[in-house]
Amino acid sequence: MSCVVAITATYRRPAELARLLASLAAEEPALAGAFVVDNAASAETADIVSRAPWPVCVLAPGGNLGCGGGVALGLREALRDPAVTHCWVFDDDAAATPGALTALLAALESGRADAAVPLITDAIGRIGWFPGPLIRPAWDVIRRPGVTPAEFRQTCGEALLRWSWAPWPSLLVTRRAVETAGLPRDDYWFQGEDLEWTLRISAGLAGVLVPAAECRHLPPAADDPARTFLKQALMLQNNFYTGTRLPHGRRLLRHAPGNVGRFLAANRFSARALAAVWLGGWRGGIRGRPAGAEGGDGFRQAWERRGPA
Hints:
Distance between the termini: 41 Å
Number of strands: 10
Radius of gyration: 18 Å
Number of helices: 12
Structural class: alpha/beta
CATH superfamily of the largest domain: Spore Coat Polysaccharide Biosynthesis Protein SpsA, Chain A
């Protein structure tokens, strides 16, 4: 019998958190409860959790652990209960859809896997976040701008697809995955910690995409171009670190040229963008510092100087 708990780390996103918890309520009784790690220790988060109609525990670490550190704390606390068999990790701005958990659990069993992700859609139903790399033609199809889950399934079917890395707007893992691969790192702060963790999991265990399952990722509209730029720079630095410094992360290196090219193109090959690529490569790849570690936290400091997001 499976016992599943949800895990999320949040920071000053009361509306998004409330939406996530409401979506998870529909997964009862398959979902036993949830752990919310509140990196801001906000009264609003405590109030939202207190009004949840099913078991939700809020954890206040007393400081901002970042996304990776927050999820690690939630996993650690959840797995103290020996009855828990699976943890369902979410971004706080994601949402479950009815039946997703049932499909993910079935896929783990049939695919003999220890990590599973659904198709992740945006507000208008397009696939926007995906694991990789997948076998072709699935890898080519899932990256097409505007492709929908129905279009993906029509072309590629519903067979499970193995991946090397996956984002965690929605990620179901077994207890064995956590005990084998360890917890997410807390020194990435945020951006790329999910890719590093899933690369670590898939180095020894199987991770699968489940085309029959869907969840949503609904981040707030980006209204601060400077934050968007820093978020992309943080990702580049952490991925440089993962790809060059960690044996299980070398699989990311093949994607580095494309990631750099897209970042530069999105920022019109400006001097600022070129400098960010150089700094990210220097800090992450040469100095060997992820973005949350001392000596590598320049982008993080720039983010924090802008005040609350």
